[in-house]
Amino acid sequence: MNLIIPDHYDPVLDVRTTQEAIKYIRDTFQHELGKKMHLERISAPLFVTKNSGLNDDLNGVELPVGFTMNEIGDEPIEIVHSLAKWKRMALKKYDFGMHQGLYTNMNAIRKDEELDNLHSSYVDQWDWEKVIDKKERTIPVLKAHVEQIFAIIKHMEHEVWYKYPQAVNHLPDSIHFITSQELCTLYPDLSPRERENAVAKEYGAVFVMQIGDKLSDGQKHDGRAPDYDDWSLNGDILFWYEPLQCALEISSMGIRVDEQSLHSQLEKENALGRENLPFHQAILNQELPYTIGGGIGQSRLCMLLLKKAHIGEVQASLWPQEMIDQCEKAGIQLL
């Protein structure tokens, strides 16, 4: 169990006021996200069939929660890890046009997650996706969307300050861009996580780009499934989080694979067999729109804005009893 207990921790808000603040942040943020990025809210599934190829494979080792349904026979069904692939299909199905997009409230179960202050087996995030032209599959377009999301988060800081001035966490005024290879060159003796901590502490907020491929040291900065993000056009939004003295990832996002990058990345991962799945066939046959999209952690955003020490203070989940006991002793109020 990996648990950080901040010195002299004060949650500031009691449990019921925290619940009130959680609702306010979630309601306000999704309204701003839809308005500023021109996204429509749609409903999304909790589970998909395994054979659709729509589930997120994450790092390739996490197993989804699976089951069967009486009315569908023996076809395996999986609770989603994320909606990275499903959203792209939805944009086509619902006839979204150029530069139109969607967002949805995504809930997932990641049973193999290693639980700590930032990680839960229950995942809640705003998943969003927008149609772009193939010519817009560029770094400047990616950066422009990152800046837009950062501006919405900064706006939320001010909104929360008006209602809960005693609890709000003050965020940096700008976000820094750096590639995973530049980080590797800058901090060759540090692990990827240590590099993220170092750069986030220096700049306050950072977007680490180009995650998934091997770096000059032969290692990956982090694992990424080969069939949704283009590894040359993606990244993570990180904030330096003072209460835990570490980088806090708020969003993973990117421009999605086209037919060329999908084949190339599947080949690198020895996963060309996936090309026979319906989702992958649709990309290879250029039947799906070119898109940009990502996820924004709902509980993580609440945690960031309210300076909470544990994600369990802003979401209801399950935790080891040892963690519950240590948190209670430290004044960390798990829901």
TrEMBL record:
PROSITE patterns with a match to the protein in the record: AA_TRNA_LIGASE_II (PS50862)
Catalyzed chemical reaction(s): L-aspartate + NH4(+) + ATP = L-asparagine + AMP + diphosphate + H(+)
Domain Aminoacyl-transfer RNA synthetases class-II family profile, residue spans: 23-320
Pathway: Amino-acid biosynthesis; L-asparagine biosynthesis; L-asparagine from L-aspartate (ammonia route): step 1/1
UniProt keyword annotations, A-Z: Amino-acid biosynthesis, Asparagine biosynthesis, ATP-binding, Cytoplasm, Ligase, Nucleotide-binding
Organism superkingdom: Bacteria
Gene3D superfamilies (alphabetical): Bira Bifunctional Protein, Domain 2
GO molecular function: aspartate-ammonia ligase activity; ATP binding; catalytic activity, acting on a protein; transferase activity
Catalytic EC class: ligase
EC number assigned by the record: 6.3.1.1
GO BP term (any one): L-asparagine biosynthetic process
A GO term from the CC aspect: cytosol
Localization per Swiss-Prot or TrEMBL: Cytoplasm
A Pfam match: AsnA
UniProt entry tagged with the keyword Acetylation: no
Assigned protein family: Belongs to the class-II aminoacyl-tRNA synthetase family. AsnA subfamily.
HAMAP family, A to Z: AsnA (MF_00555)
PANTHER family attached to this UniProt entry: ASPARTATE--AMMONIA LIGASE (PTHR30073:SF5)
Protein name listed in UniProt: Aspartate--ammonia ligase
